[in-house]
Design a protein that fits this description.
By secondary structure, the chain is an alpha+beta fold. It folds into 2 domains: about 5-105, Alpha-Beta Plaits (2-Layer Sandwich); about 120-230, 2-Layer Sandwich (Alpha-Beta Plaits). The protein has helices at about 25-35, 60-65, 80-90, 145-155, 200-210; strands at about 5-15, 20, 25, 40-45, 70-75, 95-105, 120-135, 140, 145, 160-165, 170, 175-180, 190-195, 215-230. It has a 4-stranded antiparallel beta sheet, covered by helices on one side. The chain starts with a strand and ends in a 7-residue tail after the last strand.
């Protein structure tokens, strides 16, 4: 960052279509300034303008739009600017370079945000129970889908989590095939609710679901879980 005190301001005027080697001249100038450690540089595209050729360049005329003037500005110490000038003089074969003495009154920079803490994984493992509830998408209770009502009740029981899966093809005890396709849209696709929690919590959930379910299937099975909890290093796992 530049310090307060004497400095030089350099302004370079070129046309947008002026080339340097295999690319636009203004891009080459900015790249050169970046590699030479200039504190900062800006290239702006003008709305209209004319130069020594006395030709008005404006985006209103399509044939002249690509010749729009570009202005490159940067400020640095007098010593650094003097060292850069020979190369800039050679690069700008069609344009204008202006150098002005100036004074930096204030040079401030906001603090960059601290890097995020490295995230680590905490591993938890143990025995659990898996509850799966099979029902139809069209099943309802008190005017709302039954699967939504069941999930709400499970949340009230503070069950760790529940996921609802909607089938694309299936049949049940009645032998009816349910499928979803472009030609046949079923309103009663099979739905499965999957829950994993402690044996005590699953037993409590089964009792509640059994009272709500009129036509369906409840399956409980043993399960082993591995849970990865991501937390900031040194701060402990998130609860």
């Amino acid at each position: 960052m530049l310090a307060k005190g004497a400095a030089k301001k350099v302004t370079i005027y070129v046309n947008e279509d002026t080339r340097y080697h295999h690319g636009p001249l203004y891009e080459a100038v900015l790249t050169y300034l970046l590699h030479k450690g200039v504190a900062g540089a800006t290239a702006t595209r003008s709305l209209a303008g004319f130069g020594e050729h006395q030709q008005m360049h404006t985006p209103k005329i399509e044939a002249l739009a690509e010749h729009m003037p570009i202005r490159i500005e940067f400020i640095d110490t007098p010593e650094h600017v003097d060292a850069l000038m020979p190369t800039l003089y050679e690069m700008v074969s069609d344009g204008l370079i202006e150098v002005q003495d100036t004074t930096i009154v204030k040079a401030a920079q906001k603090d960059r945000p601290a890097p995020e803490a490295k995230l680590t994984h905490q591993r938890q493992q143990g025995a659990a129970k898996m509850l799966r509830v099979f029902l139809g998408e069209a099943d309802r209770v008190d005017g709302e889908p039954l699967y939504e009502a069941i999930v709400k009740r499970l949340r009230m029981l503070e069950i760790a989590g529940a996921t609802v899966y909607r089938g694309i093809l299936g049949y049940g005890a009645k032998g009816h095939t349910h499928r979803a396709s472009f030609l046949h849209i079923s309103k009663d696709m099979p739905v499965m609710i999957s829950v994993i929690d402690t044996p005590a919590k699953i037993a409590e959930a089964v009792a509640v679901v059994e009272q709500m379910l009129e036509d369906g299937l409840i399956v409980v099975s043993d399960a082993d879980f591995v849970r990865l909890v991501r937390s900031a290093e040194g701060t402990g796992a998130r609860q």
